[in-house]
Every structure is written in structure tokens, then in C-alpha cells.
Specification:
about 300 residues; mainly alpha; three-stranded antiparallel beta sheet
Amino acid sequence: MYNYSDISLGKLEEDLKNTIEECKDFVSNIKSSENIDLSNFNELESAIYDLSGRIAFMGDVHPDEKIRDFGNEADSKIQNFALEIFNDDDLYKKYNEIDISDADKESNEFHKDLGIDFKNAGHGLSDESRNRLIEIDKRLIELGIAFSENIAKDKTELKFSEVELSGLSKNELNNLKKDEEKFIITMAYPDVNAISENCNVRNTREIVWKAFNNRSVETNSPILQEAVVLRNEKAKLFGFNIWSEYRLQNRMAKTPTNVSSMYENLIPKLQKAANKEKNDLAIDGIDVNDIAPWD
């Protein structure tokens, strides 16, 4: 079990460096070995994903800004390293040498998933398309990390009187920062959850809900717009019309049409069930038809 209580910037830097070197050794051993099986790829993949879980995760959750920044930097390095691995032609050849004739169901599924990862990296595309795909994937990594960083760094603060925070416990109020007589609500989960779960002033809940769900909207909107364009271009490289077609190809739904059909069938049933509960849920004088997400 990884010891999250003993984290320091130096230890994270060392962990990142050592694990990537370990993964490079895994790759070299696979490419030079005469006898390859799925366990070799499993070790490699597990090392990469575990590293991401240990370090990149810190970019979202650690209270120290320097460690959060390093976590995001590490996330970029890890994702780009994984991209490099699945683009390796020699590694792909070794994957194709694996004998799965006697493999069990779980191993066959893992082998299939590996094949999808290699295919998604561009094996099978023309050189021109594959080079463009690499450019797109690298840019999408940058955009994804920038999007998350902007959310994490959002400094929105809202100020409310004690009356406007009616319903919060004394302990919750004591945990809030103050500006003279006003209490400060940040976009940190402890503050937001206290409001959404316990504040009985509807207007306060609405203000906080909208602020939380619009964090970094100005900086992230252009990022999202560029990502949508790049995703659709990536889909077209693989012969699909739009991103959702590409994304769903190996999932249970298979196509956007199937997803739409599922929702068309499911939503009326859910609405019917919800209507039976609304009268019990509506409190504080809220009309049943006006129940909103912040309620």
C-alpha cells in the first residue's frame, strides 16, 4: 500500500524518474526476449497506471501547490510516455507474437484490450495519418491537463452572512474563513458539500451550485472547443464521422444511435419514477415543478 502520508516533492520526483526507467527496462526486455506472453505486458501496463495513480493523482488533491503543480507535470510525462510505448513498432511486433491459443477468458480480454490500445495509437494507419494522430494525441494531453489545472486553481470565493448559511452546524461554520461578519465559501469540496447538504436557504444553495459548476468557465471554454475539433479530426483519421462513433466502437453501446435509443427508452421510465418521489422530496415551500439541482 502506497504511503500517502509520507509524501514530499523530492520523493515524488524520485518515484517518477525510477518508475519510468523501470518501464523502459520492461520495454527493452520485451523487445529482446524470444518468449513473450501477456504477463510481460501486464507488468508494464500496471507499472504505468500505478505510477499515474500515485503521482498524477496529486495534481488534483494535494494541499501543497508545488506538489499539485508537479503532479500535473508528471501526468503529462506519464501520458506522453504511454503514448510513446504504444507507438513503438517493435513492441507491437512482439505483441503480435503472443500465443493466446490456450489463454483463458480474462487473458483473451486483456489481449484484446492491448490490441485496441495499439490500434488507437495508429498502427494500421498511413504514415501521414499516424504522424498527425501523434500530434493530436499530444495536444489533447496538454489540453486535458490545462483544463484540470484551471479547475484546481480556481479561486472563486463567495461571502454570506450567518443567516444566509442557516442549517450549517457550528462546527461547519467554525471551519469557514471569515471577512469581518461574512463567512467565505470557497470552491473546495468541504465548503461546497456543507452548503449543498445542509444549508436550508435555497438562494444560497443556488449561488454556490452555479459558481461551483462554472469554475474556470472563461479559461476552459476555448480549451474545450479546441479539444472537440481535435477529437473529431482524430475520429476521421480512423474512418469515423464524429468522436462519439470512434469512442463507442469498442463499448457495449457500439454506436451513438444505440445510445440515443437507450435514453429515449430509459428517460420516460425514470421521469415516471421520479414524479412519484417529488412530493416527498419537496420541502421549504418549493413547488414540485420547480425542484432544481441545488435542491
